[in-house]
Design goal:
By secondary structure, the protein is mainly α. 70% of the residues lie in helices and 1% in strands. Its main location: membrane.
Length: 576
Amino acid sequence: MDIDIFKDILVPVIGGLGIFMLGLDFMANGIQALSVNRMRDFLAKAAGTPIKGVLAGTLITGVIQSSTAMSVMVVGLVNAGVIALRPAISVIMGANIGTTLGNGLIALPLGPLGLILAGISALVYCFANSEKIKNIALACMGFALIFYGLNLMTGGLRPLRNLPEVMSLLQTLKADSYLNLLKCVFIAAGVTATIHSSSATIGIVMGLGAAGILDWTTAVAFSLGADLGTTVTSWMASLNLSKNAKRTAYAHISFNIIGVCITIPLFFVSIHVLEWAMQFFGGDPAVPMIIDGKETFPLVPVAVGLYSTFFNVFNTLLLFPFIGVFERVLSRVGHTDAEDAEDFSTPKFLDRKLASDFAKAIPAVQQETARHLEAGAMFLDIARGSKKAPADPGEHYLATDILSRDIRSYTASLMKEDLPYEQLDLIASLIEEADFTAALTESMHQVARRVKRETFSNPAQAIVEAALNKLDASLREILPTYGISEPQMPAGHASFPEVEELRARTLALGPNAGAAERGTILALLGSIERAEILIRRIDAERKSVNRAGVVARASARRQDKQRPLGDTGLSPVPAE
């Protein structure tokens, strides 16, 4: 059979890789746009502890039968801020076990199913009117394209089995010494890295072993290399993602490399153990059987499947106690001083246990909203190029957006039907303040982006600095602990130019600044003007309700309810 290398190999491999990467991007975008807090709560239950994470990874991967797809999904979830590094490490450990649970089902037609799901999801995405449905369809489309892309890549490499040169090379391989063992492991790792599927590699190896092309020991050695090569896909998936996503991929790589390095010196000992264990699964895998007049080795796939399962279970049991060590070590990879800053994607004051106590929950919401405001004010540090500011405005905005959703969700959950009107009014006021704060943060994000994207001449830079100082001073109205220092001057003597004055100075720059600079400054002034409107609106919202009074009365009512009947607060007087 003639094989067209371009059409049968290069086209599906390159096309599959592109579809795979596009699917990853679609899935990450869809997940991020959906309700992140609900997704995070679900994953917290499924992978709240290392043991639960291993179980979740094992079960999910056992169903989808692809540790590669599972690892890529975990990397995408970490990049979206849905799952943290520690639970992601345990989930990937479980994924390594889960992929071995159904090696006999490797030939499942997941690729065509993925294409159908992608097509249906794309139609839903194009015709849906609801933004939520669009985001769900986008995530489903990405998930399906991952499978379809992997299927294309696997199919593109499959014709290599019909090339005599490839087959003659495989027949010369024999894991009868440590040197040849390493050769088999690295070849299998290379093939798996190219195909992007350890399950596909193991399936091919099972077929070659059952046909007698590879002896069973060599087939087992190839399965060891497949576990090493499968780490390449998650590494590729993390190349353009966040640092924690990269660290998740590094965790996958670390587990498998350590496991392979430990297993290789024990390989021939483990083969003897496997020979003994095979007595309970049919006998010696090296003994051929005649089936339909052909000599076959049907126990080789059984031996390969057993060894692969044993390797991953052994590796997980060995490394599971060191999850904390892996997290600490990986957290230092690519670490910068900016990462020591506070993580604003996680609420600090919102405690679900306080939600039933109005008098305690309201101050918690106020503290978290003020913290959100502080995070938004940090965009001024980014605009000024402060060394203590977050390095990436986009990542910092993503963190504030997640925090904003958590605040709104928590505050809305405080609304109970039996609450007095004044308490419901206060909750509504807090929700509005949180919404204005989110809008203010978005405006300040735009300020930082516009300043960082443009290189200004000295006259233009002076206007930019004056605009930033004006916004910084305005922030003191609602955030007294942040901003530039108050000038040590009599009241009324410190003033900042109005936006109209700064706009006029920008237009008057003339030849001292290019058109792009002036356009950027005008857009910047527009963002600052919107930010100042929101600052005044937040200040007015805080004053619209006597918050302290409502909380004090709620606290007094709660104390009255908790006071035992008959307790009037007076000391008992002896009867005369």
